[in-house]
């Protein structure tokens, strides 16, 4: 259903921000990478049929138009975010036409951005490198299926599905959501889900509409709560509920707001000018 909505709204670029959380230590720390995938084509085109009983054909659609615009999106994103390197992830060694078109298009687009480094990596090696040396990655761009797998893998490096935000972009619309899109249906009504991913997605939304100060305050509050380690949901090793974590973030926001008000220096009023007495003639 979501894939169908993305096609209707032409939300062609899915962006997942993977960053290490302050104070929450994993095997790999200080990670900061962006995973960009084309999300209208590839294996998720949903074109499959049973040609004869017991034989199913699934079509993988790749067009130069969509390969080109996702490549340009990735390089434009790198420039706006002041990032240095774009890595195209593919399987062109086996799927020489489909992924070959994607890789060739990325290579051609990279020539338009001489100040951004470009390299490519086969998806198999990419997965291995992510779990062994993820710090090497900056901006990654890839077709649909690979991106779906890689963003889930990368989320696991920094704490799981509950802490990674995402955005789907079109030319006119943007959809802000948890990065891995896990429904976590078993948590429904139990007050145990980690709201960090959707809260961080809210920060991305605020920045998208140029409310940068509001976004900074909210993100700072979220990261402060996690860094303190006192109020964490079960997926981060704590025992707090969704409500308790959210209340802690709100309390931190109020604390910062009060502190900001206290640090404002009041400017004393200048004394009113006294009227000059009239001289007796």
Helix content: 40-55%
CATH topology of the largest domain: Isopropylmalate Dehydrogenase
CATH class type of the largest domain:
Alpha Beta
- Beta-strand residue fraction: 15-25%
Order of helices and strands: HEEEEHEHEHEHEEHHH
Contiguous helical run count: 8
Give the tally of β-strands.
9
* Helix and strand composition category: alpha/beta
Low-confidence stretches: 263-273
Please state the CA-atom Rg, rounded to the nearest Å.
24 Å
Morphology: globular
Overall mean pLDDT: 91
Summed up, the domain count is 2
* Largest sheet properties: 7 strands, mixed
The side-by-side strand order for the widest beta sheet comes to 6-5-7-2-1-8-9
At CATH level 2, the architecture of the largest domain is 3-Layer(aba) Sandwich
Terminal CA distance reads 93 Å
Q: Tell me the CATH superfamily of the largest domain.
A: Isopropylmalate Dehydrogenase
InterPro entries: IsoCit/isopropylmalate_DH_CS, IsoPropMal-DH-like_dom
Pfam family, one: Iso_dh
Protein name: Isocitrate dehydrogenase [NAD] subunit beta mitochondrial
Domain Isopropylmalate dehydrogenase-like: 2-249
């Amino acid at each position: 259903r979501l894939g169908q909505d993305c096609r209707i709204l032409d939300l062609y670029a899915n962006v997942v921000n993977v960053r290490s959380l302050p104070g929450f230590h994993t095997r790999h720390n200080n990670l900061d990478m962006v995973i960009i995938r084309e999300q209208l084509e590839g294996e998720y085109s949903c074109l499959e049929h049973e040609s004869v009983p017991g034989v199913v054909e699934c079509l993988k659609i790749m067009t130069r138009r969509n390969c080109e615009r996702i490549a340009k999106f990735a390089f434009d994103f790198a420039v706006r975010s002041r990032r240095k390197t774009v890595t195209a992830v593919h399987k062109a060694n086996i799927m020489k036409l489909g992924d070959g078109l994607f890789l060739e298009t990325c290579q051609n687009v990279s020539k338009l951005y001489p100040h951004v480094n470009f390299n490519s990596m086969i998806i198999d090696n990419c997965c291995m490198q992510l779990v062994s040396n993820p710090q090497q990655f900056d901006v990654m761009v890839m077709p649909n299926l690979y991106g779906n797998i890689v963003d889930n893998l990368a989320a696991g490096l920094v704490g799981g599905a509950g802490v990674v935000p995402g955005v789907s972009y079109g030319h006119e619309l943007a959809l802000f959501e948890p990065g891995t899109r896990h429904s976590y249906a078993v948590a429904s009504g139990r007050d145990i889900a980690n709201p960090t991913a959707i809260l961080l997605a809210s920060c991305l939304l605020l920045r998208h509409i140029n409310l940068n100060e509001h976004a900074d305050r909210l993100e700072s509050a979220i990261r402060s709560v996690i860094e303190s380690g006192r109020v964490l949901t079960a997926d981060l090793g704590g025992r707090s509920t969704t409500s308790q974590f959210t209340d802690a973030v709100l309390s931190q926001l109020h604390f910062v707001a009060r502190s900001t008000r206290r640090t404002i220096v009041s400017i004393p009023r200048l004394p009113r000018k006294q009227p000059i007495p009239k001289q007796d003639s």
